[in-house]
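Here is one chain, start to finish.
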Amino acid sequence: MTLETVDAIYQRAAERKGGDAKLNVLLAAQKQGIDELTDDRILSEMTKKIFQSGFVWRVVEKKWPDFEEAFFNFDIEKILMMPEEMLEQKASDPKIIRNFNKVKTIKANAQMMFEERQNGHSFAEFIARWPTADIIGLWAYLKKNGQRLGGNTGPYALRMLGKDTFLLSRDVEGYFRAHDLISGGLHTKSTLKTIQQSFNHWHQESGMSLSQLSRLVAFSTGDNQLIS
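Its structure:
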């Protein structure tokens, strides 16, 4: 596998975005410190991304204070004590988005987090300690042990929480296909392994974070989707 250098990708992206200064603004480091978050904030953000998937994001944002109120500010223990009947009742509340299948994920993902906490750390610490060199392994964990956290939902939630990760946006996928680095399905094991190895190589070469590299790759090709 022959990869472009980060410098080559950077120069092309700079030309497309109006020069080094403008590109560097777009590549500014994003928030970190996920290990300082409480687990209720982890569950809240994961739930938000689940509801935003396939829906208008701004509508979910507008309703989010009502979600927080309806689900006890996403307190893990309180969520786990909710009986099925209460979940059904919450799912019919017009103040939130009425989707029972997505509402059920709140308790299921709270259970995932509770079980991991039995290993002596918060779920936030668990995520923070996961090596970015195997970020696809964390994606797989969330997909296997949680509900509706596969595809791009889990990765988008991790990015918003401050965990360094690349994203498989249309532009990033387009780059890897245009350079014949991948050919199969986007979420197959072989494809994900190739993409992870590529980002690991670029990270070692440049010292840039995965999130910065992800955006850089996106800006160097395609339609320049900002969230990458």
